[in-house]
Amino acid sequence: MIKVSSLNFSYNRKSGKILKNINLKIEDGESIAIVGHNGAGKTTLVKLIIGFLNSKSGEVKISSDIIKQRQDIYYLPNENDLFKNMTLYQNLKFKKLLFNYKKVDIVQNELVDEFHFRKNLNKKISEMSSGMAKISSLICGLLFQPKLIILDEPTNSIDFHSKNMLESFLLKFKDGKNTIINVSHDLDYVYNVSDRFVIIDNGEIVHDVPKRNFQNIEDFKKEYLEWTKTNE
Predict the structure, then answer these.
(1) Are 192 and 178 in contact (CB under 8 A)?
(2) Beta-carbon count within 10 A of 101 CB
(3) Of 145, 180, 197, which residue is a domain's last?
(4) Are 66 and 28 in contact (CB under 8 A)?
(5) Cα separations (Å) of 166 from 53, 114, 122, 172, 224?
(6) Residue 179 pLDDT > 70, yes or no?
(7) Are 9 and 47 found together in one domain?
(8) Which end of the chain is more exposed for a tag (fewer CB within 10 A), N or C?
(9) What's the rounded Cα separation, in Å, for the pair 98 and 17?
(10) Could you give the angle at the alpha carbon of 188 between the alpha carbons of 159 and 80, nearest 5°?
């Protein structure tokens, strides 16, 4: 379980509070979405959860049942995190050696085929479009079967076909063994892949609601706009 308690955060005194009294529980195996407008505090929250940022007020606890070692976490940032002068294959090989993943076959792997990326294994990241580079980063992260998957705006810069492939693949990961956190303002995407929505507006959680409360995507969008209308 991930438990966030009374969390407040500001980058400096002048900026004011970015997050205000955040309380959140994420059970093992859940697939949730942290949703909000740009600047709502979504990315700041996940960076606090995984320890990229530290807060002087409140706390974050992650159960050892989820995370036993650093490589059990995969975080996809909004910006690409691969070595740009290396090929996709070289990036995969580097990560395999870094974390000593002896059982993973880089070449003969279904994830590479899921995204039809076998033809891109020997292409440098710098030669790829932003969408292709993002898919490459996803392959590098998900190939090694992390327990906690955090995706920050994963649909930015990817085309419709790649987005559909990403949705299909994430649905396979929803097996109760992986905890998935999607951070996005793409309402169609999060509705398709998540079971619960944590709505953030102006640094506060304004609603935390399961998907079953909505009849369809249009119902979800209508409620979302109502909950976040102060930031329109």
Answers:
(1) no
(2) 16
(3) 145
(4) yes
(5) 28, 9, 22, 10, 23
(6) yes
(7) yes
(8) C
(9) 37
(10) 45
Q: CA 144 to CA 42: how far, in whole Å? A: 26
pLDDT class of 232 with cuts at 50, 70, 90 = very low
In this structure, which long-range contacts are made by residues 122-130, counting pairs with CB atoms below 8 Å and at least 24 apart in sequence?
Answer: 122/87, 122/88, 122/89, 123/87, 123/88, 124/84, 124/85, 124/86, 124/87, 125/80, 125/82, 125/83, 125/84, 125/85, 125/86, 125/87, 125/88, 125/91, 126/84, 126/85, 129/157, 130/80, 130/157
**What is the reported pLDDT for 205?**
95
Q: φ and ψ at 163, to 5 degrees?
A: -65, -45
Residues 55-102: pLDDT tens digits?
878 999 888 766 667 778 889 987 778 999 999 999 988 888 887 777
Give me the residue label for tokens 């209308």.
Answer: 229
* Domains of the chain: total: 2
3-class DSSP state for residue 59? strand
Contact 32, 182 (CB under 8 A): yes
pLDDT score at 65: 66
CA 116/CA 139 separation, integer angstroms: 11
Tokens 């909000």 appear where? 36
Cα 12 to the center of its chain, rounded Å: 26
Range of the domain at 3: 1-68+147-232
